[in-house]
Every structure is written in C-alpha cells, then in structure tokens.
Design goal:
Blueprint: E1 2-19, E2 25-45, E3 48-53, H1 67-81, E4 88-94, H2 105-120, H3 127-137, H4 141-146, E5 150-153, E6 158-161, E7 167-173, H5 180-185, H6 204-214, H7 219-225, H8 228-237, E8 242-247, E9 254-258, H9 260-270, E10 280-281, E11 293-294, E12 296-302, E13 316-317
Parallel strand pairs: 3-4, 7-12
Antiparallel strand pairs: 1-2, 2-4, 2-5, 5-6, 7-9, 8-9, 10-11, 12-13
Helix pairs in contact: 1-2
Length: 318
C-alpha cells in the first residue's frame, strides 16, 4: 500500500478581484502548505472503492459524493481516453483535518489522490497534464496539486510559485464548520481593490507589511456567520509577539505569525501551545518524492471553546 500526504492549505492572504459571467469568483491569494494534513493510501483492487478513517471521518457521511472518488473516476477516464486501462483501486482516506475549515482538506485529498493513482497506475502525467482535470474538481485543487508556496490567480488555476522567509505560524480551529458558498454569497464585491505587487525576496517585516495591506476579504462575512472566529483572532492577538492574526480561506481556521524565539518560550514555559515542527513545501518538479521544504514551524491546535486557548491550558494537537 502506497501512502501520499494531503497537506493543509493556508491562505496567508486572499483577495477576491471580481466575478466571471459564469459565476466563478476571481481571486489573488498567497498560499502555503504544511507537511501536516490528511493521508491518502492506495492499493490494487478489483474496483474503485473508498474507505474513510481518522479523527474527522465522522464528518464525511456521503462517501459517494467525496472528491477523492470523483478524482479517481476522472483520472480513470482520462487514462482510458489515452488507451490506458487503469484497473481498480482501494483508497483509504485518513481524515486528520477538520471539514469545512478553510484549509483545503477536500481539495488536498483530491490532489493527493491524483498523485497517488498516477504512481499506482504508472501514468506519466505531469501537473500541466492534470491541471484541467484538477480544475473540474474544484478551484482549490490545482493549487493543492502543486502543494508548493504559491500565488493563485484566476479562479485558482493560474499558479505562480514563490519563496517565503522563515515563519512561525500557529493554526487554531474553533471547531465550527463554515460554508464557503454562504461566505461568498455575503461577500461585497464592490469592495475589491487591485492587489499590491508581491514583494519577491522580502524579509519577514516586508512580507508582514504586504500581508497587512492585502488581507483576507472573506474574513468579515465569515465572522458575521461564525462570531467565534473573532474570538480566536482576538485571543491570538493577545500573545506577545504575534505579528499578525488572520483567518485562512473561508474559515474557520485562523493563524498567527510569531517570532521564532517568542513562540518557543511560550510553548516551553507555559505548556500552552505544544509545538510541532512542520514545513511548507518549496517548488517541486515531477510527481515524485524528490521534494524540498521551506522551514516554517506550525503548531496546530483544535479547540471547541476558545477559552481553552490560554497560557495555562494545553490544547489538543491535531
């Protein structure tokens, strides 16, 4: 059995820049990916099937509608059109990420499935080859197919890999689901402005200045729908040396950017924020394991009550 990672997607910035005639929203988003996430395991079988386990598996009741199965069937059809008989596969999705949480879990799962099945079925498809199929599955799937630090534009299909300085992030999910469709329905498109040019080669201060200027335009409607998001952002902002607190994607997961030593001191002294060393991926070539990583440290906390996010109480590590 072969196991592929489906890393969490973090929207460090997100600006909706317009909407096409077909209803799809245009965006400009700086995205990073963590090593932590879901897992997709595959092995040869008589037909295509999906089993889901993991701490958040109960949130996915309708297996037949899962993006993982849709990705498998679309890839099978693509291979058949090229005269390749793919065969059956047993897919096991281990769901470590909260559902509808703004970290691209379903899209990451679909992208990991494409990678895993290309490997299992020995399909020599590049990311460029898979891009149209990925876009059929969802606007976030093309960027998850890359799983590299990038800027996504268009409806998510225009990918520009970028590099970031070293960061320390804390991710906090308050344990509530957020409907992306609902947030976009409540978005005021009249508010969008041109996105400032990304500061290539900037240090942390330069990146922070740019992030503050761009923001996440989905944060306000998400807070209106789920006020607990504001509680998380307020709590993150109270920690010493939290340079920026913001929501990822359409929520409800939020992140804080910290100074390296400050975050370490708090985790070691207070025991409140157990630190997992994770990283975002740098640019990759080919569908293989020859991957390099940018050093970004991330502690992932899930709290059902944001009062638990305190200096004297440990959180649950995802």
């Amino acid at each position: 059995m072969t196991v592929f990672k489906a890393p969490a997607k973090i929207n460090l910035s997100l600006r909706v820049t317009g909407r096409r005639d077909d209803g799809y929203h245009l965006l400009d988003s700086l995205v990073a990916f963590t090593r932590f996430g879901d897992e997709v395991a595959v092995e040869v079988a008589g037909n295509i099937s999906l089993t889901i386990d993991g701490p958040f598996s109960a949130s996915l009741e309708n297996i037949s509608d899962n993006l993982v199965l849709k990705a498998a069937h679309l890839l099978e059809q693509m291979a058949a059109a090229d005269g390749i008989s793919a065969g059956g596969v047993k897919i096991i999705l281990t769901k470590n990420l909260p559902v509808a949480s703004g970290v691209g879990g379903g899209s990451a799962d679909a992208a990991a499935t494409l990678h895993a099945l290309c490997d299992l079925w020995q399909l020599n498809y590049s990311r460029t080859d898979l891009a149209p199929l990925a876009l059929q599955l969802g606007a976030d799937v093309p960027m998850c197919l890359h799983s590299t630090t990038l800027i996504a534009r268009g409806i998510g299909e225009k990918i520009e890999p970028v590099s970031l300085p070293e960061l320390y992030l804390l991710l906090v999910n308050p344990g509530v689901e957020v409907s992306t469709a609902e947030i976009f329905r409540n978005l005021n498109l009249d508010d969008h402005e041109p996105v400032p040019t990304f500061p290539i080669g900037a240090n942390v201060d330069g990146l922070l200045e740019w992030l503050r200027s761009v923001g996440n335009c989905l944060q306000t409607p998400a807070i209106a729908a789920r006020p607990v998001i504001q509680n998380v952002l307020d709590r993150l902002s109270t920690f010493d040396d939290c340079h920026l607190a913001r929501m990822s994607g359409s929520g409800a997961t939020c992140y804080g950017i910290f100074s390296t030593m400050t975050l370490r001191r708090k985790t070691q002294a207070g025991g409140a924020l157990p630190l997992q060393q994770l990283t975002t991926r740098s640019a990759m070539s080919g569908i293989d394991e020859n991957r390099k990583f940018i050093p970004v440290k991330i502690a992932v906390l899930t709290v059902s009550d944001t009062r638990q996010l305190s200096d004297d109480r440990s959180g649950d590590i995802l």
